[in-house]
From TrEMBL, chain A:
Residues 27-50, 717-739 are annotated as: Disordered. PANTHER family: ORIGIN RECOGNITION COMPLEX SUBUNIT 5 (PTHR12705). SUPFAM superfamilies: P-loop containing nucleoside triphosphate hydrolases. This is Origin recognition complex, subunit 5. The keyword Cell division does not apply. The chain crosses the membrane at residues 238-258. Keywords: ATP-binding, DNA replication, Membrane, Nucleotide-binding, Nucleus, Transmembrane, Transmembrane helix. Residues 727-737 have a biased composition (Basic and acidic residues).
TrEMBL record, chain B:
Pfam families: AAA (PF00004), ORC4_C (PF14629). It is found in: Nucleus. The keyword ATP-binding applies. GO terms for molecular function: ATP binding; ATP hydrolysis activity; DNA replication origin binding. One of its GO terms (cellular component) is nuclear origin of replication recognition complex. Residues 59-205 form the ATPase AAA-type core domain. Gene3D superfamilies: P-loop containing nucleotide triphosphate hydrolases (3.40.50.300). This is Origin of replication complex subunit 4. InterPro entries: ATPase_AAA_core, ORC4, ORC4_C, P-loop_NTPase. Component of the origin recognition complex (ORC) that binds origins of replication. DNA-binding is ATP-dependent. The specific DNA sequences that define origins of replication have not been identified yet. ORC is required to assemble the pre-replication complex necessary to initiate DNA replication. Residues 221-405 form the Origin recognition complex subunit 4 C-terminal domain.
Amino acid sequence: MADNEEGEENVPRGNEWEVVSLTASAYAAAPGPKEVETKENSTDDSYEPEVAETSRALFMSGHFVFPPSEHENLPIEPLEPDDSIEHVGKDVVPESGVDEGGRSRTKGEEDWTLKGLNVHDEFPGLQFFDKKHGTEFEEGTTLQGLDLIDKDQSLYSAAAFSSFHSEEALGGSTTYGEDSIVSELVEASEQGIVFPADIPQSPKTLPDAKYDGSNLPCEAWWKRRAVSLYTHAKDANAFWSIFVAAAVMGLVIIGQHWQQERWQALQLKWQLSINNEKTGRVLGSISRLKDVIVGGHRRYSFWNASLNAKLMAREESSPVTRRTTRSYSTSNNGVESTKPTEFYKPTLLDLGFRQQPLSFEDLLSNFPGRRAQILELLRLLGPLNSPMFPILVYGGPSTGKTSVTLQVFRHLNRPFVYSSCVTCYSPRILFESILNQLLFHRKNSGNSYSSSKRCEKPSDFVNYLREALESVIENLKGNVGKSSSKSSEQPNGTMIYLVFDNLERVRKWDKSSTILPFLFNLSDILKMPEVGIIFISNTSPDTFYSNMGYMEPITLYFPDYTEDDLRQIFMANQSNRKLYSSFLDVVLRPFCRVTRRVDELSAAFSLLFKMYSEPLSDKEAALNEEMKRRLFSQLQPRIAPVLNETFQVPSQPLLKAKSIQEAMKKCSSKMPGIHEDHDKMDFHMSTSAKYLLISAFLASKNPATLDASLFDSFGGSDGRKRKRKASEKSREQKEMAEQELLMKGPGTFPLERLLAIFQCITSLAEDPFDEEGSHDLTIEGGSSGLMSDVLLQLSSLCNANFIIKGGSCPLEGSTRYRTAVSEELALKVARSLKFPLSKYLYRR
Amino acid sequence: MGKEKHNKNPSGKALNLLRTRLTNPNFIFKTFSDSPDSNYSKLKFIISSSVTEACNNSILLLGPRGSGKVAVLELVLSDLLQQYPEVISVIRLNGLLHSDDNCAIKEIARQLCMEHQLLFSKVASFDDNSQFVVAMLRECGLAHKTIIFVLDEFDLFAQGKQRLLYSLLDAMQSVTSQAVVIGVSCRLDVDQLLEKRVRSRFSHRKLLFLPASREDTERFLEHILSLPMDSTLPQKYTVEFNERLKNILADERFKEVINTCSSFNSTIGYLVKFLFQAVSYMDLDVGFLSLENFKTAASSIQRQPKLECIRDCSVLELYLLVCMKRLEVKEQTSYNFNSIMTEYKSIHASFQTSDYYARNVCLRAFEHLILRELISFTDNKANNQSVEYRSIKLLISPVELDQALKSYRSCPAILLKLMDR
């Protein structure tokens, strides 16, 4: 404990008092999560009568939880006061979210310190009071590390907080009013005179508090310490992360006791209390995080987060599996993992596939529908030790280009070097990865993860490559001469093949105009007959043409699978072949008209097959015609919805929250064709964010000139004029406008317009607010309080890609926004708020 | 197992031999080197005269890719290196690798060091290196040694300030130096790219590499494809192989195949590539080349990637393509996914097609088309717009689309009808 204090105090910071505040927070974080939970409950009870609404919500913040694990040597007793402090502190600074809240505060540092200093100047006498109080505190507790100064520190920052957030403090603590002293405090805090009011109070409460098992209501001076916790946060960046992890764990445990609505209320509060843009960005991530929590599997997500670091480390150390392709990764894992974890030294063997060579029959049967391509590739590669021209293997995605190429090498058991331009995303990484493989170099902690050679320029690369290839080929030749009865592991032949996967990516690189011709001319430049070069690309050779020109490689085309091929592919590895084939009879044809990509189809089919086989009690039962027909009739109407669900493009914001599982649930739980649960939102969003989203949508869709008539006090669409006659000219104009709308997409709008509309619709829609619950109203207070937070909400909406921040308008110079929200989603949001959106939507 | 089999079977060995020949440019261009007015003899004469007379010289070798410029040059250089072993050192640069002056001068210094067993410092600056090169030129001149600079992809050296070319050619102006600069390029106008100060120092000697005549090609085919009698291959097999090859070469159909090939691209390199594919198709069990091999090679070398790509499209993707084509015919200047969707909907409304899918599905198909590079965005900057609103263009002509639709298996009749109007 003492050590901790020392260490933290040594942190050099601008103001003295800030440093000192650390000490308070250091032990505020004492006990394990278990105690926290029980005591939470007890304090909760004690609060209930007086602090009904507010403290509840505060609890939710989880701020009081702070069960940092590294301070275990501390007595557990001090926990209790800390917790309650935090309750109170909470309502002063409600935004202090679980973890990111801390970070957000560090960003707002300047503001805090400024405020704090102000208070300091105004009330120099306070320090004295506080010291006195601090000593008392020390006597009464088992805590020894508490500094005196520490107290005034927290005091000031408390003042800072309360003055900073005077509006919120007021709104939040009205319920506190019952406690006369605290109400005083609140009033005082508005003007910054917190301390005289609360200090006399605290000594009284101290003695009976005793820190353990105390059912005491929160006291004002605790508040200070809680606040000092906050200030601490901004100092100890590195330290904070640990606190955060601990806090998160605690939060998870307690969070389970609370209902979803609580979160909703809380989120509002968090966001309400943060003013500047930077913090807003952090908040965005908090709210997303929270969505995860609400979504159900809280514990998981948090454990994952804390474990992440460990897992990452472990993954790094294990040898990277070299030869895995999408379809073979599972089968390869077993073999690859047997390699020792400590510095593995690759050898010549590693240039081969390192697996039992595949027989020709297996190779063909593994890739149904690819027989012609495999044969042609084998022919082009030629017999052992025969030189070759460069080959370009191309074809659409998921047609088996990479798999076939690599498995052909497994079949031939010849040495090759594989590098994909996806993982090697720049020339330097590509060059170094090839050289590392050729020089049998593996990155590990021993060489601090550096490459064997550093080369950025093609000229260096060619020199190194030639050297490396010569030595490898020398090696291979030596092997052949040495052991005529060589083991099967030894790669065959003296040819070495360089495989470049995903070549189409190179076109997007910075220096693509020189790198691409270089790669295509590589074999000419090397002039080594022992080197074969194979390119694999998603796009056809004509997309690589440039005015540079190059000797075209020999092309090998992988066409998309035909329907029959697809049937073979899907029939492979099916346990119930009969059932599945009858299933394919039903679904394959309609789906093939949309896409023939295996990856997309398999996602859709796995879902559909479950539905298909659902009515069957005994899956092994023989299928007769009648049964088939029945299943067919059951599945038939579901195909179309699944088709739509699974082929949604994930780039749309709406779809982010949706998963295929949900789609499945939907489809299986209700009658097909009826979409009654469209009212329900698939993701969570705060009320004000919803209003903001709607107003953004309106601002994008409606012409700015109509705002006045739509939103004036008469309201509604009555203001619209519909007298225009459909003359020839106007119709033409209308057509033009329609065309323009289609082309332009949603319109842009300045921030002012968005805010104006937002204010209009929130004031119009007061009724739904009442339904939401009284606490919402008390927090939000007037609409004037809303304004500051709307900016915050806006930035989090921007981060969630609901609203796109565009470039600034050349004339006005202000930033313009536009919505990326589809009309369906906007309507859905409006429905969840019971907001009559269509009334305000201008239709051309 | 495969190795033993191929030991017994002469066809595997023959195939290996042919493939080695075809991938070895030196062997290929040997056949063209014997006549006195060939580029080989001209080039050899020029270089050897400047070596023997100890003068400076510069030459440009121009011709399309695959016409054997570098191969012929390499032949000449290897001959000369044998002829005058001590007097010549060759520095090879490639515009793809060394177009940057700094890099190029470094590479020259490195190769000079290698050649003369000197220690090369990687950290030497541009200035150090260029001083070293100039000093080496002078020293070599004094020792009556010729340095031959081979600049492949010469046009790439002519980008930017051309400092390398200038310093090389300028150094050659002095009496003491003795160097030959050989530029190799597939741009015929490469001398126009040179700056004035460089051009004035360049002797405008050019060697053009023209496609081989028909007789030459025939001679070449026989030379390259027939097996040698003095190899380890069984005598009987070789004789039969050569006999069959003669029959094929004399065949009119074969000549036609070769003609179509050379009408595409008449360079030797293309022909060699074609022969390589044909040889690869040789059936090892039969062990002899057949006319079929050449025909399949011809069909696989003349690909039409866009057509293949359209043939791979799903029906829905075809619908979208046809919609785009119709929009283009309507002379709509620019259109995006939304306008395509309205067109698609109107088609559905008027014809009641069975292939009517939701917007989401269409958007996915639309993205597939972008992936296939049959369509692309007209502008590169995303401008914060989502995919639906960015304007788009077809990368295929209506004729191509029409052709592909006609060859598409089970193309909906309605699409063909829609194409026409």
